[in-house]
Amino acid sequence: IAQLKQQVVHRKAAPSKKPDVSPKTAPMSNKDLIQIAHKPQFPIIVTAYTVTSHLGDYYKKSIARFTWSCIKHDLKHIVYPLNGVGDWVKGCNLKPTVILDALETFKQPILWVDADAVILKHPAAFDNPSFDMALHVQGSGHWLSGTLYFSDNATNFVKEWKKVTTTSTPDEITLLNIYRNSGIKPKMYSLPPEYNQVVHTGTDLTKLVIGHYIRPDIAPSRGVKPILPSDL
């Protein structure tokens, strides 16, 4: 019996055999994974949608199409589902809150694209950006916020934007005002119109990079026929 006990103790004390980890089976380093997952300088695409809407499942269908377009072009993307706030403008005014959360969470450049949009071509303007903020400015001087880029250098500016975007004033108006009046002015780039263009049945899609659907409830007042997310 004593001999059997000694054998058992000896077996328990024996060192376990180390697994054979050859170069072919060794796990990838974090650096390797980052290189595979996305281009280091290319932004994470971020959007948000309200889970309830007076338009029914319009935004959920839009998000499905948006996500599909990101996957088609191998673009890393994050979708924020938000509770409805009962007012379309108030919902839009959550935009700086979501963008700031993404900047602080991921510590990377962020490309915001509205939920009811679709990416039709690779957004090459953001491959190697030398700017900290980007949007399309219409000929009238009006700023559009459907497609917005912020580098992590612009985080403090977005904080200021969030603070003033608390009323019924649309987010793109507060964005323009804060840029004019703030002591923080990120280096800005004016995107070409094909990065923030309304899509309807009369839109030329040949050069379009990011198209924004026109909501079916307002299309008639603009004299156009809408294209639904499931149609493009």
Account of the protein in words:
This protein has helices at about 1-15, 30-35, 60-70, 90, 95-105, 155-165, 170-180; strands at about 45-50, 75-80, 110-115, 115-120, 135, 145-150, 190, 195-200, 210-215. The chain has about 230 residues and is of the alpha/beta class. A 6-stranded mixed sheet has the order 2-1-3-6-5-7, sandwiched between helices. α6 crosses α7. The longest helix is centred in the N-terminal third of the chain and has 15 residues, at about 60-70. The chain is globular, with a radius of gyration of 24 Å. About 30% of the residues are buried. The model has no long low-confidence stretch (mean pLDDT about 80).
Low-confidence stretches: none
Fraction of residues in β-strands: 15-25%
| Portion in helices | 25-40%
Order of the strands making up the biggest sheet? 2-1-3-6-5-7
Query: Helix count, per DSSP?
Result: 7
Report the principal-axis shape: globular
What is the CA–CA distance across the termini? 79 Å
Number of strands: 9
What is the chain-wise order of helices and strands? HHEHEHHEEEEHHEEE
| Secondary structural class | alpha/beta
Look at the structure and give the mean pLDDT: 81
The biggest beta sheet is recorded as: 6 strands, mixed
Radius of gyration: 24 Å
